[in-house]
Write a structure and sequence with these properties.
About 15% of the residues lie in helices and about 30% in strands. It is α+β, with helices and mostly antiparallel strands. Its EC number is 3.6.1.-.
């Protein structure tokens, strides 16, 4: 495999009650209970961009607010490979998967600050607060291992 990994950031955004924001992919609107229909905010890192800056930019772009503070940065770059059926199609066909720097953040705003309707082509069409331990069951199969790591390593932030 000679395709590179796409460098990305991801946000595990905790509210005051220790729940995590998950959002439903707009391209999977009928996937209410299906794995992969719900995910954490994530996105690419621009060339030369600091991951800590990128995570706030991605929050603003994907959920309409960057009202948060960083609690922790995962020490490892976590990566996944796309399944063969998605190679050459997903991620613009230019990547084999993603390598991601994940952050635990505390949401400092109000629920009304979360706005999925600000982007003319939103990635998400719904959002909700979920228990951290739900994450692996919400993830599409090829991202499940990452969500298991996040649920384990960021568990200390899931307390109000």
């Amino acid at each position: 495999m000679d395709l590179p990994y796409r460098p990305c950031v991801g946000a595990v955004l905790f509210n005051r009650d220790g729940l995590v924001l998950v959002a439903r992919r707009a391209d999977l609107p009928n996937a209410e209970g299906a794995p992969g229909g719900w995910q954490l905010p994530q996105g690419g890192i621009d060339a030369g961009e600091d991951p800590a800056i990128a995570v706030f930019r991605e929050l603003e772009e994907e959920i309409g607010t960057a009202s948060a503070e960083i609690l922790a940065e995962h020490p490892d770059w976590l990566h996944y490979d796309l399944p063969p059926a998605l190679l050459g199609k997903a991620l613009g066909g230019r990547y084999r998967g993603q390598t991601q720097r994940w952050f635990a953040l505390r949401f400092t705003g109000e629920d009304a600050d979360i706005r999925l309707d600000l982007d003319p082509h939103p990635e998400f069409d719904a959002w909700r607060w979920a228990r951290l331990e739900e994450l692996p069951g919400l993830a599409v199969g090829f991202k499940r291992a990452i969500y298991e790591v996040l649920a384990r390593d960021f568990a200390r932030f899931a307390k109000p």
